[in-house]
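Entry type: protein chain
Record version: 2
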Amino acid sequence: MPVGRDKVAADFPDHPFWDFSLRVYGSDGVPAACLVLQERYEIDVNVLLYCCWLGASGRGALDGGEIARVCETVAEWHRDVVRGVRAVRQRLKGGLGAAPLELSEPLRRRIAKIEVDLEHVEQLMLAGSLVREADAGRGEADRLADALDNCGAFFAAAGIAPDAADAAETAAILGPAFAGLPAASVAAAARARLVA
């Protein structure tokens, strides 16, 4: 049924986690690192980014119960909504059957924009799942350790034993959040804290 040509734009509240995600994800190498981990383990990259943000923003490290609660908060939304829409978008890539590419490609691009909105909703759900005040006095090295511990807790909850390649991808994601530290230091800390 046609609904007209009126645009309906989502009006999301501002949140520093979303701003962090846009900044980090917009940095060189981060989308590729996220995609590698997502495809390798089918992890929810939004939860991984949330783990990074909690530590980077001075909100500390999660314990096992907290990471379980965070994951549970968005599990159904991510599984049924985000992944469902992503599957449709991916299925349309390059055309589908007899549907003309000039019709299906613009639709695929619109679905990609909707997918971003769905990810935004998920991030707001994550941000509301655990409320912690930031410790503005927490040093950068301690914040990096917290972020890596959060990522490690998330990997453990997902049954993942990170290897050196996973640590490198995680360091690539965290690098832009810790621009005051040399990339080699972030990579060394990721190896030390994530790889058994």
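Comment: The first helix runs from residue 16 to 25.
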